[in-house]
Amino acid sequence: MMAADGWYTFTGREDEIIPRNATRVCIDESVSVIPAWAFEGNGNIEELDCHDRVKTVEEETFYWCRSLRRVIMPGVEVVENEAFIHCEALTDVECGKLEIIGESALYGCESLTSINLPSAKIVEEDAFCDFHALTNIVFGKELESIEGLAFFRCTSLERIAIPLKDGIITDDDIFRMCKNLKRVDLIEGALHDIINALLSLHQ
């Protein structure tokens, strides 16, 4: 359903065709999973508004949506592999209940400057790779693991807040080429798990 102001209501039908003049998308109340490839390559969408019963964004759903700048998904718990890859204009993300961030889920979202992930548990490989504008990221105490190259080439990253638990840092190259990372705020735990990861910053 298309409104005059550019809003389109996505219903999740298999044969659904997104109007090319739709610039803003809201998710219908009947949808709890935004299916894979639903908006792949759509260069017109600027804003996504999900109700709080949307729980999952499947793989490559917003692949290469270059104009997407704002994402509101208050109830989403899982963002699958490459769901928002190369959303280069993305600057505003609200995802307070997000728990699992899939491999390369936000790869190349180079305009995002900060993100707050209080509920995140799993950050998979390359999840935030090539975030060139990102300066600040905050995790909550629920975080369980961060996989290899998760923040590779986040060249502007200066601060990260992270709980340090046994096994949370799974690889030495998580912060590789994060040459401006200057501050690590420890939510709880000890420092020893992050030492090797920080040693790789200038490699």
UniProtKB/TrEMBL annotation:
It comes from the Eukaryota. This is Leucine-rich repeat domain-containing protein.
